[in-house]
Design brief:
single chain; 332 residues; mainly alpha; three-stranded parallel β-sheet; binds tryptophanyl-5'AMP; aa-tRNA-synth_I_CS; EC 6.1.1.2; nucleotide-binding; aa-tRNA-synth_Ic
Length: 332
């Protein structure tokens, strides 16, 4: 079976609807067709300051949500990044293959430092994408399910993998981003010109999966639309409604054309009310299931320990081959 690998940050506590539609749903599908590795990326999280107790708690919350969304530890490998030391080890090697200018062109870093200034950025934030390169290459992943905002990091991974293979001989599988066109970018409910994101969205613009469902329903109902009344998919002229149609369509498996037909002549009110109901229906059992996993941390930690063991078996092999290729003397 071909491999897939993906990661998600634990920092916000709750995942948001963009995470779910853009990435998690693809994790679920791929666990049945691929040898799938999914992790909570706590090493990436500390590229910006974290409260230690919160980080530890949120890492469990993230793992519980992955399980609640339907990932099955018998069908995929689920683990915490810091439990597999090979990530940091391979990242060092990859740092030494990455150009300074190349890393400087990563748009996420440029956006973040544009906002907060270069002085407050850590070197870890700068090399964040290189750690991601190591994440992907360690598992010889051929596909990387992510949202559109991660495309550039997967492209960087391809470049570095090709560079390594060219210099040291065939070692790494060249990975491709696995991005679903319809849901690769879910937009902010209050500003459909920007993506839904924990750093840029206002509280009203973002649906947190662990929020009280009533709160999320309200956010759907007050989502920014346009001055027309027609429920029609048109990303340019009607970005707000188009975003809601995408969400509705993906959560229910109904095509957008069918939804347009259903809501013909009904206006935005009915459409939003029913979408709010759909969301509440989906999110309610998700929250309950997350709480159940969190109520039994011993079982949760056991799942993660097993996952780390499976991950290390693969990662250790790749790291050993890489160390050998670059010319490190084996420790005997
Ligand atoms: P993170 O934690 O920011 O986001 C997790 C996943 O959610 C996707 N996503 C979205 N998709 C659609 N619409 C949105 N509005 C939206 N917001 C977020 C992201 O694209 C991502 O797939 N650097 C990564 C984590 C990572 C990783 C990896 C991913 C670390 N190592 C290796 C893949 C492979 C990140 O910060 O994702």
């Amino acid at each position: 079976r071909p491999r897939v690998l993906s990661g998600i940050q634990p920092t916000a506590g709750s995942f948001h609807l963009g995470n779910y539609l853009g990435a998690l749903r693809q994790y679920l599908v791929l666990q049945d067709t691929h040898d799938a590795f999914y992790m909570v990326v706590d090493l990436h999280a500390i590229t910006v300051p974290q409260d230690p107790a919160e980080l530890r708690a949120n890492t469990r919350v993230a793992a519980a949500q992955l399980l609640a969304s339907g990932l099955d530890p018998d069908r995929c490998t689920l683990f915490i990044q810091s439990h597999v030391p090979e990530h940091a080890q391979l990242a060092w090697v990859m740092n030494c293959l990455t150009g300074f200018g190349e890393a400087s062109r990563m748009t996420q870093f440029k956006d973040k430092t544009a906002k907060q200034g270069m002085e407050r950025a850590t070197v870890g934030l700068f090399t964040y994408p290189v750690l991601q390169v190591a994440d992907i290459l360690l598992y010889q992943a051929s596909q990387v399910p992510v949202g559109e905002d991660q495309r550039q990091h997967v492209e960087l991974t391809r470049d570095i993998a090709e560079r390594f293979n060219g210099r040291y001989g065939d070692t790494f599988v060249i990975p491709a981003p696995y991005i679903v066109k319809e849901t690769g970018k879910i937009y902010d409910l209050q500003d459909p010109a920007i993506k839904m994101s924990k750093s840029a969205s206002t509280p009203k613009g973002i649906i947190n999966l662990l929020d009280e469902p009533k709160v999320s329903a309200k956010k759907i109902k007050s989502a920014v639309t346009d001055t027309e009344t027609e429920v029609r998919f048109d990303e340019e002229k009607k970005p707000g409604i188009s975003n809601l149609l995408t969400i509705y369509s993906t959560l229910t498996g109904t095509s957008i054309a069918d939804l347009e037909r259903t809501y013909e002549g009904k206006g935005y009110g009915a459409f939003k009310t029913e979408l709010a109901e759909v969301l509440v229906e989906w999110v309610t059992p998700f929250r309950e299931s997350t709480q159940e996993y969190l109520a039994d941390p011993a079982t949760l930690d056991g799942i993660l320990a097993k996952g780390a063991e499976k991950a290390r078996a693969v990662a250790g092999e790749t790291l050993a081959r890489t160390y050998d290729k670059v010319g490190f003397l084996p420790a005997k």
